[in-house]
Each structure stands twice: as structure tokens, then as C-alpha cells.
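Make up an example, fold above all:
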Amino acid sequence: MLKHSFMPTLKIMSINGIDLQKLSASHVILIPIRSFSDAKSRLSAILDASNRTNLMLDCAQKVIAASKDLPKLVLTSDPLVQTFAQNHGCHLIEDKGGGLNPAIQYAYNLLGEHGIEHVTIAHADLPLAQNLTNLMVKGQSTIVPDRKHDGTNVISLPAAYDFHFSYGPNSFERHLHEARRLGLEINVDEDPALTIDIDTPDDLVELLNNHKFIFRHLEI
């Protein structure tokens, strides 16, 4: 189990500017969630909007559970996601807009400026996630690619570095290069519970074929 040294209090503001909770920790899990209602549009060929929403809710719950006792921060500007996050014991950081990279950059910089030592950034579409707490190694960057070594499913790195995030196609290689630029020791973790994400209908069908009861409520 990780031991946490307590740091000065950091106020995490909600999207409506109300001070919801106070956070004191050295290592946090940051989970960006833009929306549930219009997520995973590429799955529309096999899932209607309601099922896509339920899929994302299930995945997000698994990622939150995989964070275990570490403080969890949901990065969002969506009121429904905000309510979901609060109901699951998460803190909130406002997504200032401009896309995924500016939003994560803002949150990462904010956390570093307020004394957080290490940030693990995990996407919310990891249906097999079990444990995110063991990715933190002091002074080291741990990167979990997707199965194709294209995207970045999880990245764990010290805060307060001038790290530039570059999510999107081929982000895994770009994040490797960025960690090398900063002189960080790099660990590539290919835990199959974290390398599997859901982007395409083929991804979902393969997942359901191999894990038949993971999403019992989905109608395909």
C-alpha cells in the first residue's frame, strides 16, 4: 500500500465556482470525462445513445474503483458528470475548454502549483481497470499505451514539471519523447487490465466475446 505524506490544502473548485471539497495529498488520480451523453460516437453503429451512456458510466465507475484510497479528481465541465463524480466521492476540477490537451495541461499545472507531488492521469474508458495505485514511482514517468501502442491510456508522472501533453493519434510516442526531454526515468507498463480501451465497435465486440459478463445490461 502506498504511504502518503500530507501536503498543504488545495481547493478544488467546481464548474459553478463553489468550493466543494478540500484536498490534501501527495499523489492523486486525475480522470478527464468530457461527457457521458455524447461519448463514444464511433460506437453508434452497434450501440444507441442510451447504451453508450451506460457503457461510459460503467467504465468510469471501474476506473474510480481502481483508484482505491487515492484522492480522485474528475476533470469536467458537464453538470451530469459533476453530479456523478460527487456521488462517487471525487473532487472536481473545471474543464476550461479548448480540448483534451489544454484541459489536462491546466489541471496538471494547477496540481503541481499547489504542492501535489505526483499525478496519475487515467482515461475513463478502461473497462478492465483494477489498480491504478501501483503506477506511481517517485521521480519516474510510467506510461500505459493502448494495445496498438498508439494512444496513451494512463500516464503517471511527477507534478510541477514542464511536461507538455499531446493526446491524440500516436500520443504514446510523443509522451515518451516528452518524458525523455525532461530527463525522467520511463517505465512502459503493459498491464492488460489497462491497455484495453473501447474506441471502435470491434474493440467492444472483442471485449464482450472475451469477458461475457462485464456489461450485462448492454443490448447489442
Remarks:
- The helical segments are 49-66, 79-87, 100-113, 171-181, 192-195, 201-210.
- The two ends are 39 Å apart (CA to CA).
